[in-house]
Amino acid sequence: MKNTLLFLLVATLALPAADSTDSKPGKSAKAGRAALVPDIDGIAKEDMAKFRAAFAKAQQDEGVKAAREKLLEKRKSMEFATAAEKKDARADFETLSEEVRKALRAAIAKADGSLSKEVIEKATDALEDKLKEKAKEAAASKKGAEAKAAAKSGDKKPETPAIGK
Questions:
Q1: CA distance 123 to 18
Q2: Residue 75 and residue 104 in contact, taking contact as beta carbons nearer than 8 Å
Q3: Which residues contact 84 (CB under 8 A, 6 or more apart)?
Q4: Range list of β-strands (E), 32-73
Q5: Distance from CA of residue 79 to its chain's centroid?
Q6: Would you state the pLDDT for residue 6?
Q7: Which of 58, 61, 116, 163 is deepest in the core (most CB within 10 A)?
Q8: 26: alpha, beta or left, given left = phi > 0 and alpha = psi -120 to 50?
Q9: What is the pLDDT along the chain (165 residues), one digit of tens a residue?
Q10: Among the listed residues 97, 95, 118, the one whose alpha carbon sits nearest the alpha carbon of residue 108
Q11: Beta carbons within 8 Å of 38's beta carbon, 6+ residues apart
């Protein structure tokens, strides 16, 4: 569940960066999008090229934006919730995540009608899996960095003044 939410947020934040015109010299915006949406085994290169273009267009679709906004609002409302409240809201998050997924797939199909439903599903599932993997790696490296920082700060004990001397 957390991975699905993280996927949606990462995808939302990564796409504008991938499409920006301020890319590094020698790299086009297409190269950034290709890195975000890599080739997938079992899908022809032509279909992947079509999928990448349709995926970029789908990010601008009002239905996708609205579904993501609802998910983001729910996430923000749960920021200071208790563990029990978060557990109770899990079904809501799953429903909202599924709405985003459906809206994205529909927008991709609308952007390029030549893509089959199977290609769209396979590509979006693979993309979601890749982003989940990257999110786990990022979380693990963040935890590792926090542990190192805590260990460093834990090595030094504050000096206490001697009383009565």
A1: 18
A2: no
A3: none
A4: none
A5: 18
A6: 45
A7: 58
A8: left
A9: 555 544 444 455 444 444 444 444 444 444 444 456 778 888 999 999 999 999 999 999 999 999 999 999 999 999 999 999 999 999 999 999 999 999 999 999 999 999 999 999 999 999 888 888 888 899 888 888 877 777 776 655 555 555 655
A10: 118
A11: 130
Which amino acid, residue 11?
A: A
3-state DSSP helix/strand/coil % of the chain, to nearest 5: 75, 0, 25
Question: Quick check: 120 and 32 in contact, CB under 8 A?
Answer: no
Question: Can you read off the two tokens belonging to residue 33?
Answer: 């999008």
Position 62, amino acid: E
Identity at 150, one-letter amino acid code: A
Record the tokens describing residue 78, joined without a space: 């749960």
Tokens of 115: 């893509």
Closest CA to 76 of 95, 89, 64, 65: 89
